[in-house]
Amino acid sequence: MISTVRAAGAGLLLLTCVAPLTAKSAAPADRYQLIKVIARDYVYDAPSTVVAGITTIQLINQGADIHHVSVQQLPAGKTVKDFFDATRNGGSAPAWSRSVGQTAIIPNGAEAFITFRMPPGRYILSCLIPASDGRSHVAKGMYQVITATASAAERSTRAPAAVKRPA
Predict the structure, then answer these.
(1) Domain residues for 87?
(2) What SS3 class is residue 70?
(3) Strand-pair partners of 146
(4) Is residue 160 part of a domain?
(5) CATH assignment of the domain containing 46
């Protein structure tokens, strides 16, 4: 009886150890990417185009002021101007934008991270905290628009549209 239990336990251990070796590789949309965003007073240095998927933003504050990054997805039909018009009065993201998240507020020399799934679309990175004069950092120009595009692998695996052939 004991040898049967040991044999079953050994088999389970073997399956547990082998299973990760036979796992399929992650789908392109599930691959991880790191985007480095440098914050300065009052601008971001960040890419304008990235591949959609699981994304980590590393925010590094090289400005004298405190900063953070808020990530909002811009819906179809909305522009960066619409975003600015909506944030001008209160310094908060508009209700019509989809909040992906935001980092902690960090001082000069610090860094913060945020990880999220970024589907294809347009996003705006902004610093919504107020400066000493009361205006939000985004009102002073601290924003970056990022477009997330489908990867080449995802585009090639999509089925082509049905084509009608003449009879």
Answers:
(1) 28-153
(2) strand
(3) 123
(4) no
(5) 2.60.40.420
**What is the pTM (predicted TM-score) of this model?**
0.72
Residue 124 · residue 137 · CB < 8 Å = no
d(CA 159, CA 16): 36
Is the previous residue joined to 42 through a cis bond, with omega within 30 degrees of 0? yes
* CA distance linking residue 6 with residue 4, whole number of Å: 5
| 115 is a domain residue | yes
Query: How many domains is the chain built from?
Result: 1
Decide if 5 is inside a domain.
Answer: no
Tens digits of residue pLDDT in 124-165: 999 999 888 888 898 888 999 999 999 765 555 554 444 444
Residue in 73, 83, 137, 74 with CA at minimum distance from that of residue 105: 137
Single-letter amino acid, residue 111: E
Express each pLDDT in 39-69 by its tens digit: 999 999 999 999 999 999 999 999 999 999 9
Q: Which stretch of DSSP H or E encloses residue 20?
A: helix 2-22
Q: What gap in Å lies between CA 79 and CA 154, rounded to an integer?
A: 27
Q: 68 in a domain, yes or no?
A: yes
b/e map 88-116, b = 16+ CB within 10 Å:
eeebebbeebeebebbeebeeeeebebee
